[in-house]
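Lab notebook, bench 4. Still working through the backlog of constructs that have no structural model yet. Next entry is a single chain of 84 residues. Request: give me the structure tokens for it.
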Amino acid sequence: MTINLNDTNAIRDLLKHKHIKVTLPRLMIYKVMQQSSHAMTAYEIEDILLQQNHRLNLVTIYSTLKIYQNSGLAQRYKINTEQA
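Model written out:
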């Protein structure tokens, strides 16, 4: 994934505004979510990151999604017994 510096700065500022510690995995996960046109599962996020040669374990993705959910940056949906 090529991260545009302006996009990265905007995401970093947003996370700081929400009092979320800025880390590279959190930036990458947010960027994937931002570029998607639909709700995504943790597995879909993992797959996209793997295609971009970024390896994050599912625990990191799930914990980041929970942080985003608690701060209002993401919503949780149940879809066909899978959670997005």
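Notes after review: Helices lie at 5-17, 24-35, 42-51, 58-71. The longest strand covers residues 78-79. Flag for follow-up if needed.
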